[in-house]
Amino acid sequence: MITRRKILIALGTGLGGWPLAGHAQQPAKVPRIGFLGSTSAAGYATQIEALRAGLRDLGYVEGKNILIEWRFAEGNYERLPGLAAELVQLRVDVIVTHGTPGTRAAKQATTTIPIVMAVAGDAIATGLVASIARPGGNITGSNFFFPELCAKRLELLKETFPRTKRVAVLLNPGNPSNEPVLQAMEMAARSLKVELQKFAVRGPNEFESAFAAMAKSRVDAATILEDAMLIANARAIADLAVKQRLPSIGFKEFAETGGLMAYGANLLEMYRRAAYFVDKILKGAKPGDIPVEQSTKFELVINMKTAKALGITFPQSILVRADKVIE
User: Measuring CA to CA, how many Å separate 204 from each of 11, 36, 256?
Assistant: First the structure.
């Protein structure tokens, strides 16, 4: 006796009208990452490549088994909330951010999509996470001791140039991580008997006027704060510092592109490490349960080529502590 079930099977149709073969071979979903960049793709090319390399190490190849939606604010931090909203509307599986402004914009845009901080200066002080061990919410990633790092730079400047009395602080006022950093620097400055003078820049078009103002104020040295826009324009800042013959210290990229000194975390390693957090989340881990990693290794970089151009001789106590000397 031919039953209805036999007829359906012969026609290749399962119960309920679903084709059996098609139902068994549904294509696997390709995960999508949203990248929220504060500057431009060109300005952060090496950091982006570090992230891609980290993903490749874990078996993810962009365009094959993972997709990345890139969004860049081109240095205009006011665009970050809108770009974060775009990524949320696309329903990406995870958002990768860099810096406090981008992470804060992503946090305000979603409480459900996981967020990975490739780099953050002080995630607790700026209210991005509740704690390092159990961040809670939808954010995890990498963090470094930004306030302490900037205070240490003042100490290095004073040790290298003992007569230093006035230090310029170049910063982007749109970065909310500045507040705890400046508090730590003011404490260090008082103990070192150094006066800090702040010079705010929101974009490269303000660099020359800021350095001209430094010259007018007769500062003895300058320190450059970490900020996505400033890092992306490290070479231009380094060139102006040399042009003004101003001793300076900043992040690693600053010294590597011509600045005199740097003391900072290895940001490229942190970008590469962001892939680890992405992988954990895509495999089902909740971001709030993944501890935030603290970068505790800082490197002292000295650019001897710039030192010679400025006629500067480093004390032996500084040279022996340098992790990298650029000849």
Answer: 68, 21, 19
